[in-house]
Amino acid sequence: KNEIKKSEKELKKTRFLLKAERETFEQYKKDTFQDAQLFSKGDFSEESQKFYQTQSNDLEHQFGTRLCSAESNISQSSHWSCSLDTINSSIGDLTVVLKSQDKQVIRLITENEEL
User: Fold this and answer.
1) How far apart are CA 74 and CA 55, in angstroms?
2) Structural contact between residues 97 and 71, judged by C-beta atoms closer than 8 angstroms
3) 87 and 50 together in one domain
């Protein structure tokens, strides 16, 4: 009987922790989504800009790495022996980088219009 009570107690504790974890995750998703929404609507508050800057820094790092690998793949491959896969993946990387730069330019234009 004592073992059953102990098990029930453990089960309740686990359920409570799971519920808390789920609620925390849901709140995190909601906050992140709201931040993204605010910025897209032209909210340039300090908090919003800080959030955006963090996102940009993360992305810039990724794109910088991808750009370097794309450039080195292209330059290392001789004109004829370069595999089609290498070319395609490098073009894909460059496209992603260019698209992200377009977004940065659009954001800057939007900010200037707001001012």
Assistant:
1) 28
2) no
3) yes
- Provide the number of structural domains found in the chain: 2
Do 37 and 48 lie in a common domain? Answer: no
pTM score, whole prediction: 0.26
| Domain that includes residue 69, residue range | 43-115
Q: Are residues 62 and 32 in the same domain?
A: no
Contact 111, 44 (CB under 8 A): yes
Q: Among residues 52, 54, 33, which one has the least CA distance to residue 42? A: 52
**CA gap 52, 56 in Å, rounded:** 6
What is the C-alpha radius of gyration for the chain, rounded to an integer number of angstroms? 24
Residues shown for the chain = 115
- Over residues 34-73, the pLDDT tens digits come to 555 554 455 556 665 666 566 555 555 555 555 556 555 5
Which pLDDT tens digit goes with each residue over 90-100? 777 777 777 77
Tokens of 102: 């377009």
